[in-house]
Structures are given as structure tokens and as C-alpha cells.
Amino acid sequence: MGEVYRARDLRLRRDVAIKVLPASFASDPERLRRFEQEATAAAALNHPNILAIYQMGTYEGAPYLVAELLEGETLREQIGRGPIAVRGVTDCGAQIARGLAAAHEKGIVHRDLKPENLFITKDGRVKILDFGLAKLTQPQASSESNAPTMERATNPGVVMGTAGYMAPEQVRGQVADHRADIFALGAILYEMLCGTRAFQRPTSAETMTAILKEEPPSISQAVASAPPALQRVVHRCLEKNPERRFQSASDLAFALEALSDSGTSAAVAAPAQARAAINWRWAAVIVATLVVGGVLAWLNAPGPAPRILSTTQLTHDGLPKINVVTDGARLYLGEGGPANRIAQVSVSGGDTSPIPTPFANAELLDISPDHTKLLVLSHVGTEDLTPLWSLPLPSGTPRRLADVVSPDTPGGAAWSPDGRHLAYVKGPDIYQANADGTDPIKLVTASGSPYALTFSPDGRRIGFTALRSSVSTLWEIQSDGSNLHAVLRQGQGPTTACCGRWSADGGYFFFVSRTSSGRNVWVMREPTGLLPWRSSKPVQLTTGPLSISAWAVSADGKKLFVGAAQGRAELVRYDSKTAEFVPYLAGISAGELDYSSDGQWVAYISYPDGALWRSRIDGSDRLQLTYAPVFAGLPRWSPDGTQIAYMGMQTGQPWKIFLISAQGGAPRQLRSGSSSEGDPAWSGDGTKLAFGRYGGSQPGGIRVVDLATAQESIIPGSENFFSPRWSPDGQYIAALSIDSTKLVLFNWKTQTWSNWITEPGALGFPNWSRDGKYLYYDLAFTDHQTFRRVQVGHNRSEQVADLEGLLRYSVPPAYGWSGVAPDGTPLFDRDLSTDEIYALDLELP
Known about the structure:
The chain has twelve helices and 57 strands. The chain is α+β, with helices and mostly antiparallel strands. Among the domains are: about 75-260, Transferase(Phosphotransferase), domain 1 (Orthogonal Bundle); about 305-565 and about 835-845, Neuraminidase (6 Propeller). The two termini are about 55 Å apart.
């Protein structure tokens, strides 16, 4: 369905395939639904045996999708040349099964698997195509799903699929689950082996009757050399009763891989005379080679994987955990809340107690090797660079570390293992100084914003995390600044990682990786021993549902102390009469609300999963619009109420602007590129979108896109502004300065910017009142957080709500949202998350 063209992506410099649904087909709702479903289903998957979908959109009324370009031929073309060798069947079948397993784990059933929808690339890789008939269901219970749930179910009694490859339950029009795909794969394996279809009759009706009532001819009749084990695998796939087939594509893949590994290509045995003639010297060489190879393989074997044995909760204060270090007897915690503080607790658990400091906001970074002092960063208002301090233990007066300053976020510092040096971040640069901060020298300039510094136990290496375009990666240098390189090779581990730290003996390297379900701890064995070039693959130690926010390893390597959070918010409104915060919309765990222009509908982001929903203002007619692995943010209704613009981000990718129908369907990415984009804002007539761009290779500033022509322009002089908000009358765009201290206003008539208001703290989440007279915003990073508004034409703000004592929901990537209801009532998300320290018993082989 559709026409496919070869094209060139000039921005990313790669060849792609563009599949276009002709305008005549686009007018057919069912064809359009199938086309969109193909993109939605495939885009939810990321597997080497499934065609990758890059983008979907519409041009001049014709929907299109952009996919990876494949070179090779379909399986149908291969089968057309005759039966395929047994080894080729098992290899190809295993790849198909692995691709299906990935789809089934995401709750996606293909339902139209056939040789035409299977592509063999020139390098022998199989790609599953065309998910146009895919059924999107609840995922299998044994797997975490990132796939959407089908919003339009198949009507009972409707036959979906291709005759000859449909399972009996599909022929009957019954509900078909993932085992229908296993039946289809069995029919394909049969055809690959025999060169003829398992069920082929003159008409489709007769073919479907054969599927229901007849067994296919035995494979051995067509291919006498086919291994009996392979025949049993194929015939088990073709069982009429789904309960008698393989119950998972993973099991089928395992069976086919076992057959492939066992040598089902059946090499012909050499005659006995030839075997007897082998020279004994060659036999000795072969034996010696096998022995040496076996020893090397044993030395190079990965060994048992590290694992968590048990878990014990240590704290019960509920405050967010920002960092944790240990001296062996006690844990020292960086905790959030109304203000950051430093606390302590025994390694065996109990009550936490604060460590007094003179700082209003203190962030814990490290503990000295002799355990006599803590390295602390003090937040001061909205200053970009903040001083570092040495805080004596158990108490004492802090000492300023010379003139050392570091960004408050991201940033960081660490002492060397011998206690003689200090490594710290300043902008994109990493410095090393004496332990007291004197005599600093620059070591390296990072690509991105470095943070989370750590020394290896021998002091020879410094690890750090670099944040660039919302993607964090692990890096390492020698302590003299040389040999800058990434810790993880491409494909070696997760695509995004941060906050690495070595075990005390240097044998293991731990780090954290974020997915849409939260942050988990990973570990990898360091290269040691006889084969120093060996590098193990990272192992995921924790698997949720708690999200790791801080962690430390005990000196003996037997325990992992983690700060773990379960995100939960409560949507509240501020009652000005009682000065209290009361639940709103039944106190759902959500934020980032936006109302339709008629005030009857609301779009919001649910926490902690980051899904976009829409519903009526009474909570009825709820519809989920986006799904994992995309985390959505800041939705904005179009003026006509038909579309919602929002920010979307996948792990390891920058934020981008998307558009989606208020009735659901496939989202459309507004622009491509490596830069992050955020804060979409509609023009009053709904023909344009403004948004902020920052980071990456593209210039920053506030952009405006004409949705009809796709033309993009930058608002002059906006290079240092972000978070645009279009006024209801269309005359202005309000925005924030890059340091968040200023509110600025762009006048469309005069094409000029003017400073509107300057605050002592950081402004956030600006929103216009419905009548356009006021702009509301959050004022944070001050001694007293408030919610304020400023009137157009005035340059003094007034307090609307006192936020003292309101614990804001701040589980990344969501941070303390505020908004305004149509009647001007302030809205917030109150943090009800649980965040505690746990001790995980750790086994490191």
C-alpha cells in the first residue's frame, strides 16, 4: 500500500526510503488508518530485524513516512528461484522470530507476515516490513512495554491477513494474538524449505478451508535431507490449535538457532579411508590448537554476572535524594525539598539527621579519602557559578576552597584518592588544583557540559559525564588531561549514561542509565588479567520500578547504597480564600495542563510515565495520546481544538516539537535536526507555531514555523531568549532570558524586544491570562518561592500565591510545573513521591 521512493536526507547525509500514500488513497479512512498504524507500530520498535521508521508527515495532502533504505530483495524473490538450503532457512527463520519477539514484547502482533513483507539485505540481515495490519494490544506480561494500546479494535468476524499464511483463528475472524504470527512464520519456513506453499489451492476460499481442515504435505516428501528436528519445529508452528504451537517467538528463535548451531547444513562425512589417512603430526597440531584456544576462550569468558541478592530500606524521611557518599559507618546524603540540605544516617538504617551548614542551599559532591570532611557546593540565588567548600565532619566551620567556582547544574568536583588534588568543572572545562583549590590548571575541554566527576582508585584516571543536546554520555581522561575517550563504545551498552563511579578495588565501573521507566544502575567489569584488552558488556543491576537518584558502593564491594524514588504527583490548585492547596481534577498524578480555547477540554502530562492525555474538564472521555518510550511535555491546544502541540523526547535524543490530533493517531515531528526544541506556542489564528531552540549544531533562539508552507524564521534578536508565549491577541510574544531572571516582550508591530521585568530569582512556566492582561509565572531559587503575575504595561509584579511549604514535583525530566486555570486560579503539581535510601546486597564475582 503506497509508493516507495529512494531519497537523500541532506541534513543527516544518508539515503532513505520515502513511502507515500497517494492523495486518492488518503481520502479513504481505512487506508489512511492502516498507513498511520504501520508507522506507529514500526516506530514503537527498535530492533535490527525490523524496518526503522524515522519520520511521518503529510505533504500536499499525501501522507508519507521516511524509513531506512534497504538494498537487497524480498524473501518472495528468493523463494521464486527455488527451495532454500537448510542452513539458510534456520538462519533466516531465527532472525524473523527475533524480530517478532521484539514486536510481541511491545504488544504488537503483525497479522500479515508473508514472504513479500520480509526483506533480505545484501549482508544477509532479515527485515520485517509493513505493519499496516498490525494489532496493537496490551504487551505480554513478562515484559515492560513501550508500545501503544490499540484504540480501534478489530471487529469480530472480520478476516484480516493474507490467504495461505493466516492462522485458523484469523480465518474464522476470531481474536488473533501473537501465536498467529508464529503460524505464519511456520508457513513461511515450510515454503522456504519446499519451494511450495503449505496451503495453496486455486481460490482463496479453498486455501482458507485447507488451513482449517487439512495438514500440509510432509516436508520430507519434498526435501528428503531436511533434518527431522527442523521438520518438527515447522509442523509445531503450523498446529491448528494455538495452545499447541510455540507459545512465544523467543522460544521459536531459540529452537531455530539451536538447529543452526548444531550444523543442520549437514556436511557430508568423509570416507573412513580418508579419515584414517590423516597424518598424526597434523592431529597433534590440531589438538594443541584446540587446547590453546580453549585456554584463551576460558580466560576471555565473561564469567558470572554481578547481581543484586537482597534489598533493605534504610531511611524513611521521604525527601528527594540528590547524592550519597559513605565513610563505611555512616551515609552522608544530599537531600532536596524546599531547600537542599546535607544529612546523615547509619549504614544499618534509622533516622536521618541534618548536618548544620550556613548555606541556604547546599549540594553534597564528595567525601575526602580520610573521611574527615565533605566537599560541598553552595547555591547562591541564580548565579551561574557557585563556590566550593570543605565541610568538616562531624561538624565545624566550612572552608572556602580558594577561588574555585563551579556551575550549580550541571557541575561538580571530586577529590583524588590520595587527598592531594581536586578536580572540578568550570563551564565546558575540567580543571585540577591542589586539594585546597590553589594552583588550578585546565586539563581538558569537554564536548558538552561536563559534570559528575570521579577519580579511579589508583588516581590515574578521571571519569565524567558530558551533557549535550539533552543526551548524557560517559567519558574518561588520564589525570594529566590526556587520552580523552568515551567509556562505552557504540553498541556496547545503553545509549545514554551518567554518573560513573569505580568500586573501591577498581575492578568494576558503575553508572546510571535513564529510560522512559526511570533510572537504573549498570555495572561493567574493568579490563584486567592476562587479556588486558578484554572489555565486558555492561550488566543492568536494577530494573525498577524505583528510579535511582543517587548511589554509592561500600568499600568492601558487598553493598550498593541507592537513593531510589517512586514518582508520584498530586495536581493541586491554590485557594486564595484559605491560602491552601487543594486537589484539582481529583488530584491526578499529572501536570503541565493546557485548556482548549472553549475551556471544555484539557491536555496534560501524567507522571511519572510522561504520557500525554486529553480529557474533558470533568475528567471524562480520557484518551492517552502518546506512549513510552517518548516522554512528553508542555502540551498546547491549537486554537480550533483539533490538534495538540507538545515537546517529546526519547532516551538519548534531544527534545523535539510534535503535533498530534486531539482524537489520537500518529504524532508528526515538526522539525528535524540535532538541537533541542521546546515550549511550543500557537499563534492566535492557528497558522503558526513558535518554539525555542537551543544546543546542538543549529542556531538557537525563538523560531516561528508557518504550518502551511513549513517555512521557518527566527525572531530577530531572540538568540538569548527561550520559552516563548504568544499573547491571546497576537500582538506580543513573551519570553525568558537565558539566565531566567528577565521577562522580555516582543512587539510584532515594531519588531523590537523590550525588557519587561527583572526578578531576583529564576522565572519559570510563563502563561498569559485568558484576557491577555496579565502574564503569570513561577519565581524560584530565592529565599521565598512565590507565584506571581505582571500586568501588560507595568514593570512591577505582584504575588498571587505563597509557595512556602509546597513541595514541588521534580522527578526528571519534569521540574516543578505551575500553570493557570481559565479563571486565573494558580495550578501546581505537589510532590507525593517516595524517595528513600536502600541497601542492596551486591555480588561481584
